[in-house]
Amino acid sequence: MSERSPLLTYRLVSMSTEVEAAGGGPPKGKGARRKKLSTFFGVVVPTLLSMFSVVLFLRIGFAVGQAGLYETVAMFVVAYIIIVMTVLAVCAISTNGALDAGGAYYMISRALGPEFGGSIGMMFFLGNACASALFILGLVEAVVDTFGIPIGETVGTGVQVLPRSYWYEFLYGSAILLLCLVICLVGASIYAKANFIIFLIVIIVLSTVFISFFAVSPKNIPLHVTTGNITRLVNGSFTGFKLSTLMENLYPRYSPDYTTGRMMTFTTVFAVMFNGCTGIMAGSNISGDLKNPSYSIPRGTITAVIFTYIIYNVLSLMVSCTCDRTLLLNNYSFMRDFNVWHPFVTIGIYASMISASMSNLIGASRILYALAKDDLFGVLLAPAKKTACGGNPWVAVIMSWFLSQLVLFAGKLNTIAAIVTIFFLLVYAAVDIACLALEWASAPNFRPTFRYFTWYTCLLGVVGCLVMMFLINAIYASATIAFMLVLLLVLHYLAPSTSWGFITQALIFHQVRKYLLMLDVRKDHVKFWRPQVLLMVSNPRSSIPLISFVNDLKKSGLFVLGHVEQENLDSLPSDPLQDQYDFWLHLVDRLNVKAFVNLTLGDSVRHGVQQLLFISGLGGMRPNTIVLGFYDSCAPRDFLEEQPATDTQKTMSITSDSKDLEIGFPPVRKGMSPGRLCAKEYVFIIADSIKMLKNVVLARYFADFDKEKAFAHGGKGAYVDVWPVNLLRPDSNSYVDTCSLFMLQMACVLTMVRSWKRAKLRLFLCIESASPRPVQEEKLRQLLKELRIQADIEIVNWDAVAALHWHKQAANAEEEDFEAFTNFPTNANRISDEYLEAVNKMILEQNSKRPPAVRFLYLPRPPADTGLYNRYLHQLDTITRDLGPTLLVNGLSAVITTQL
Questions:
Q1: Which of 677, 628, 679, 682 has the alpha carbon at shortest distance from 870?
Q2: SS3 breakdown of the chain: % helix, strand, coil, rounded to 5?
Q3: Does an H or E element contain 629, and which?
Q4: Three-state SS annotation for 535-576
Q5: pTM surpassing 0.90?
Q6: What is the pLDDT of residues 531-568, one digit of tens each?
Q7: Where does residue 485 rank: exposed (0-12), middle (13-18), buried (19+ CB within 10 A)?
């Protein structure tokens, strides 16, 4: 096993973690980070405090007062169904491998790839930063309620001395957020210690609240209620446990929120209340600081979720039984007013809010640090990589603090509650999608030790998150999703390549395998035939224009680049082709062609081509046409060293990374040096392909092919010329045999490609003066009409050319045997060079209007006598000499029909 193998890398990382946990000491050097938080301190405590935060002490009464007990319980049921589905997905992903810093971002990016991971990670960073500000605003609200000058008064009394105004409250929030920044800059250890102290305070305060419901006598609580510009004094009541109070609080009574003046509804109350459930990622966010993330995250998160659900429901029931509607609707700090000792609740509110704000601030910084470390956003986030000596990403903390500081301008908690909730719901949906995709892909390496989930729990979580997003605020939800999609597209085109693995590849494999099995070759029909091409490439350096052209010619069919290396595996230590695949795939990427690559070893090129024809493709997706470069003595050009004539990738002669490809492919053949195969073997490959029922296309002069130049004639488009008659058999003038129809179909397919839409087909009808010209032309025009092919018919009188052939036949009359003229003359010498040169000249004379972009000529079968192979190739060379880009086509497939 090589030292770079993933398994060995994982083992080395695991071993180093185990040694460190066993007391081996932290890694040395600047930026080294030691994982030291346990399940309780690293997951349970942060998650509990983040989930309790604003809802526990400040918004339970708000929810019950507005929505009533029934709808409040329903809200908690809906919210916890969503988060439980997400928690199950988080547990599954976190127990499927080693986690690093970044929490949900790390899980999503490593499961779905950098595009989804980066975009969702950025959304999660924004959500955490906004949530940090939200909790600060809740804390400011509590501070002002306790220490602020009473509404309607100008002078404070007692402890109520703090001025009330938008800017003063912004100042208070900024000061508190600065305190959180200082604590987070110290690092995760001080954060965990502070959190544990806060946790103890919150538990003590929560205990006093439950005791107060039973120990405190009924009492009236004076409230200042503002209606418009009028402030009046009313009394809210803590009634103690009364059935009448419970009955009054069962049903909703939606009214304007006294802090913002906005009319409340089920969805707006849910948006505020759901912020008490968004802390489930608090432990995951600092996964890089946990001793054992895969162990701690599932156990700690599930424990915190169960505990908070019980507390929220019990607390809602007790509030409904003891507090009247007036108190709940007009005093969000009502728990302080009936507590056995008022400062207890105040301390609990302050402690939980600061903890939640710090948790989100440090979570946002860890996500930002992970994004920066992965280089997904390049220089934009590069500063966030910087860490202190202890490994704390202090620049990321400051950047997160700055964003939270900006959010404080919103002024009120309920103002930003909806957008924060939507951010978190979107992230939760992404986590569910990641787990769902892993489950659907059936990847063998997806073996989480946490098994209490199924694909439908993930799907339920996705649906629940998306539905609630749009119920809360359709505009915010749409804008958030649109922003995420923009990020996704940007990352798709700009993000660097990664080795994380893409779930899309696993899903595509899963679906392609299924559909390939369904693609039954026995159900193929001529109506749906498409070219599926195997292009044999000797050296990509000299074949780039042909590769690009065949990519157009195949339209939406299969395209395989084939290459044969003349080697004997028995004499080699390993397969030499494995190292070449990357260069070929890189070439495909740079040329922007939709092609597969198939390489093989063979003792000869002929045997290698036979192998590729036998094994290329799967099921119904197998090549039906082979394309070969023409066998001639022309010196090949090296397109990787030449400057491109255009800036398009498809003609790519030189690009910025061409040099990378040069080292992977051998230099081109120089001058008149011999090629890799002889002329006879080349014709054998043609004959073998026909025996295997493959259509054959020979491509000549495509080193001179320039599509842009061909179309640069006043915007009139290019010509595609088709000569559907077998020019090597002038006694046959049939235009409707299988080969000619195949050639016509291929030319038509080429003009259907978007970049060839402006090309015009020209069909050349070769007739002799004795033939009924109008009749033949009308028959051909009717055939084109039935085939729905638009083409200009050009009449070519070839009496003089055909006479050369018949003169030769008369001279050899004693040798004539017309039965041998099935497709190619048995004696190739019957076709004279004089006739072939005349045909070549006749074709060239048709360039008087404008030379075509490409020509299609009829390719006859090789002769049965292998001794005539050299003569056969000479005839093809003569007839196509100096014609420019030309395709010689032999079609065996019935590919065209007039039926619907």
A1: 679
A2: 60, 10, 30
A3: strand 625-629
A4: EECCCHHHCHHHHHHHHHHCCCCCEEEEEEEECCHHHCCCCC
A5: no
A6: 899 999 988 888 899 999 999 998 888 999 999 988 88
A7: exposed
